[in-house]
Specification:
Layout (H helix, E strand, L loop, with lengths): L4 E2 L1 H8 L1 H9 L7 H13 L4 E4 L2 E11 L4 E12 L13 E3 L2 E13 L8 H17 L5 E6 L4 E6 L2 H20 L17 H4 L6 H10 L1
Parallel strand pairs: 1-4, 6-7
Antiparallel strand pairs: 2-3, 3-4, 4-6, 5-6, 7-8
Helix pairs in contact: 1-2, 1-4, 1-5, 4-5
The structure holds iron/sulfur cluster.
Iron/sulfur cluster binds next to helix 2 and helix 6.
Length: 219
């Protein structure tokens, strides 16, 4: 069985392999405005409470695991929608049972993010990994979830389609390979470095930090 790595690390790896290495292999972390805003947003969601509104049951801070992908984490919110016709033959509408509740319910993960919707798949990959964990844990199908963006206060639906699943599985595999290799990649300087919380630790303009330090020490 592979080590269980955090689902959130997929996002770091998708953003920049060096960021993943610094945070998870070297255990570095620096909080900037962007990570601080994200943490506050998650703290508001991470109450652990569940509640129901009619045909919707809302679970918060749900623990997730996938042995197949070697991932674990916590889902901010998983909404469960009561299926109108639980006898449906559609595998996408199989649903699950909930303790103390009648009928079958369709899980729908919702991940809270600071900022705005992004062109890149970073956030969608994290949501997809949550959906894959839920599918494995609950033996069901999850065709859709959503991202909620704090800045725009807007919910964006995300289709958990074949392309996103392939991308997420490949990234999880790459993450395990990097973890096993125990080596942080060199910087990949680019526009993303401006908003990177590890900019001052990474020293992206100096390329290989070992070489940079030798250069400084050699004077
Ligand atoms: S500063 Fe740039 S190269 Fe360094 S970890 Fe951040 S994004 Fe990656």
């Amino acid at each position: 069985m592979p080590d269980l790595l955090p689902i959130s690390a997929l996002q770091h790896l998708a953003y920049c392999p060096r960021q993943f290495g610094l945070i998870h292999i070297e255990q570095s972390w620096a909080e900037n405005l962007f990570t601080a805003e994200g943490r506050v947003l998650h703290e508001r969601v991470d109450t652990g409470r569940s509640d129901s509104r009619g045909d919707v049951h809302i679970a918060r801070s749900l623990r997730l695991v996938s042995q197949a992908l070697g991932l674990s984490g916590i889902a901010d919110v998983v909404e469960f929608y009561r299926l109108k016709d639980p006898t449906t033959e559609d595998p996408n509408e199989k649903g699950v049972t909930l303790p103390g509740r009648r009928g079958r319910w369709q899980p729908f993960p919702v991940e809270y993010k600071r900022g705005r919707s992004k062109r890149e798949d970073w956030d969608r990959i994290q949501l997809c990994a949550q959906a894959l964990c839920l599918e494995e844990m609950l033996d069901t199908s999850i065709p859709e979830g959503a991202l909620f963006y704090g800045k725009a206060r807007r919910r964006e639906p995300v289709s958990i389609d074949g392309g996103l699943r392939t991308e997420t599985r490949a990234l999880a595999e790459r993450m395990h390979t990097m973890w096993a290799g125990n080596r942080t990649p060199s910087p990949e300087p680019g526009p993303k470095c401006k908003n990177c919380s590890l900019n001052e630790i990474c020293l992206p303009k100096h390329g290989n930090v070992g070489a940079y330090l030798r250069e400084m020490l050699d004077g």
